[in-house]
Design a protein that fits this description.
By secondary structure, this protein is mainly alpha-helical. It has one domain. It has twelve helices and two strands, in the order ααβαβααααααααα. It has a two-stranded antiparallel ribbon. The longest helix has 21 residues. InterPro entries: OGG-like_put (IPR048868). It holds the Pfam family OGG.
Amino acid sequence: MPIAANTPLPSYVSGFLPGEETVMGQSIQVDASRWQKALADRGLPSLEGILASPGLRHVSRRVVFELGARDITPENAFQLLYYSLAWGLGKRARKFNKRLDGLAEDQENTAKLLTEAWTAVRSGEPAEVVYSTLTTSRGKARIPQFGPAFSTKFLYFAQGPDIPPRYVILDKVVAGSLHEAWPGAPKAGWYPDAYGRYCSFISRWADLATEEINGARKVRADEIEFTLFTRK
């Protein structure tokens, strides 16, 4: 069933608007040493920044967003990918080795797809178009083991920190929290048009939230995503 675009803003969202600082500060603990060894073992480009140091490190949304402001190059695209993956996977890093095996399978093609996706984001293409650079029309990953949920994380962070996000993270937790507006929502493998409708829907709820606080500030779309993800 498609998402019901006219669903009113629920009180569990309007009553909990975290604000930009809380969203940007959301931090995840990452085992940098594990990442460094795994990348070296596969001949993948090495890490830069805080994850180039050994031990446990904290990666926030802000840190990853800053990578999205860099020049679009294959080298920078790999760094943005690593950090968006590390932030999404956390310390436990489910299916960590399989995911990195997928990235290493064809590094040239991985770099090509990532730079194409980043360029589409920078150009402000429609959400379904930017999503389609990393995901097929049937919701399958174009980069092995780098599925739709992580594709949306890469697209989200590729926007950089200087503009309100148009492309928003979608994963099984967020989809499951939208059961009133999107009953029976798939938990993975979203088609491009579904992702496009989702981004439009979240932006609409952000606009409604802005109205509810009488325009005191502009509510960001990722505040809505954050609220859905942390919903109890």
